[in-house]
Amino acid sequence: MVNSLNNILQLKGKFESRANAQPPRTPKLPKNAYVTSNHVRILLNQLKDILAYWTQNTVIEGALISVHYKTIVAKSNRLHILLSYPGHFPVDSICGAKFKWEYNKDGQLIQKHVFTHYVPLIAIKKAISILENTADILDYKFNGKIDRACADEIDNKKTFEYRDRIAKTTFLKAIVDCWYVEKFDIDIVNEEIKEESIITIFKTNVKTKDLFNKLGINIFDDRILDDTTVRLNPDEIEILLNKAPYLISMNVTDMNEITKEDIGDEIKKEHISDKIIQSPNNEPIVGVIDTQFNKEVYFNEWVEYRNMLSPDIPLLPEDYYHGTAVTSIIVDGPRGNPQLDDGCGNFRVRHFGVATHGAFSSFAVLRNIRSIIASNRDIKVWNLSLGSNLEIKENSISPEAAELDRIQSEYDVIFIVAGTNKPSEKMKATMKIGAPADSLNSIVVNSVDFNKKAATYSRVGPVLSFFYKPDISYYGGDGVLKEDKIIACKDNCGASFVAGTSFAAPWITRKVAYLIYIMGLSKEVAKALIIDSAAGWQSKDGCSYDIGYGIVPQHINDIIYTKNDEIKFVLTGVADSYETYNYNLPVPTVNNAYPFYARATLAYFPHCNRNQGVDYTNTEMDIHFGRILIEKGKAKVKSIDNNKQGDEGLQAIYEADARKEYRKWDNVKHICEKITSRSRPRKTYETGVWGLSIKTKERLFNRKKDKLPFGVVVTLKEMNGVNRIDDFIKLCNARGWIVNKLDVQNQVNIYAKAEEDISFE
């Protein structure tokens, strides 16, 4: 079968980089927009009330102000001048962001941005002064109303007649700010919190411990996770709600339960031979963080087990079932499930028992995970099949997911996370996924049955009302019959029939481990390959909130090989400037045309900031892939998805549309041409080459740009079914690319050699 397929190619060449050449422009009102002095004065009076409040309330040594916008706004349309103060732009003071949904006057439900700023009182006083002068000028000069044409006329004049009261640029920026801002407010939490909870507060200049002491709450360091996240009991939460409800950014109940997986009837065996599986050699090691591991199972030699709980905690037999079953699939899953044989072989596991089968403290697990990863740097692939019965919050990432995302951006590791299951009493309801399945950097896995339908217990995304989660799906068992379930080993009594996302995730963990350890691919390319293999030739419109981008193929060969009418290649690079690009990708032509459909999948692991709420990812990578066109003497990529973001000149793309059409701010991008019977070969331009451009933007102005690795998987499908991979390789070699065929046997030999023990005589 493999002989009729093409190898995936690894292209190595130089990416160029350049800074953003477009000069910053004075912000402008949208077309047909206008601002009235009445609206300016409403905002002015709101700020005066807020200033009075924070003058009286000095606990946080500053002010928290929520800026409510009329809609979702791009970074370039957020406050330009209001709430600025010497040495600080308005964006520098953002400490939280959320979405709000409200009906407009036409009865349409509108999604809106709300940003919370932490500023000194001088910032409010400055904004009040600016708005007073702006309102007065609108009344005196423009009869209380200014539109785009009038604003542009002022901008084009060299002098501004009111410059003794306010600078021209300050006036124009204030006008634009007032157009986008609906109101200023102090938002407070109004929900009742009666359980011990993990609470996240807005970041201020006062240290967390000192801040709580001021409020009469005494907390010790072991209850502080980071600068803004603490664990509080109900009495302490009540004090916080009574004295400073404005401080609470987000909360999540601490005592979560592992989602219950259905471990069904067992096939009892009198004895399982120790030789049912060979002894481990130098197979790759996968990390598992789960409940405890039963050392009596037949594959115990393959597992290094560490109990991370206190020795004082008594353990029951059921505390071992879930973790042992998950690890059994990673080590030796195909033995009990030959219909799911993936060709990946066996894996060793280092198993960390962090929980029991019942309720556990996610706060304790959070503190555990980082130390586990830091102490086991040799492990790159981790399986986490624990999850919360609670639904994720609409406007915030869970603390568990945020910690996973931080770890994956700081360390060269990747987590495969179960998508969590519905509790039995909610099987008929639609239910959002639970923590930590809202982790954006992780690969989150949901379940399908053997008919490729979403499992009855599957929960759904999105995350932060935007991000696709789960990422992909795999077979996790469903139904009442034994043959509908997954076979796993939970103890030394034989096989157990199980179902749940916990038992779908380990199959993907095996594949990712194979791609990274055996095939030698980066985690960025491995993630892109997994998602690309699930998505195939469907566009982003084919992605759903229960199955994700699709179902990952069963056998590893269907991921690391491609059909013989397709050319699949992977590229890796590091983005350290605004644009990282290569305009030198040759694609075979026939009769001066390109007879190919094209698709590309990009994956990267950005730093994330939970304190930024819905603006969670710090970095945006925008992918452009397609033919190179010369326009006005400059080369540009004519992207296969017609993406014009970042092109020179004014591009009228609204933030909501950019998120919907181009997945702006998503750390996975999948662009794909539709295959139709009416498609015709694409004409060649004078350059005769294709190109890839990655445009990188940072959300926070004051944040240092990182060197951020990315991985791209590109697939070209020949329209007439012809195998043109040899032509492609020759063209790449002629243009200076180093082309590597990802040959499985060769990679296996390389891995084996690298893992050999060398003895010196």
Average residue-wise pLDDT: 89
Cα(first) to Cα(last) distance is 45 Å
Strand order of the largest sheet: 16-17-15-19-20-21-22
Which band does the percent of strand residues land in?
25-35%
Q: What can be said about the biggest beta sheet? A: 7 strands, parallel
- Per DSSP E runs of 2 or more residues, the count of β-strands stands at 36
Taken from the alpha-carbon principal axes, the silhouette is globular
Show unreliable segments: 268-273
Number of DSSP helices? 15
Q: Radius of gyration, rounded?
A: 28 Å
Report the structural category.
alpha+beta
Can you give a write-up of this model?
This protein has 761 residues and is an alpha+beta fold. The protein has 15 helices and 36 strands. Strands 16-17-15-19-20-21-22 form a seven-stranded parallel sheet, with helices on both faces. A six-stranded mixed sheet has the order 32-29-35-26-2-36, sandwiched between helices. Strand 19 (381-384), helix 9 (399-410) and strand 20 form a beta-alpha-beta unit. It is globular, with a radius of gyration of 28 Å. Mean pLDDT is 89; it is low at 268-273.
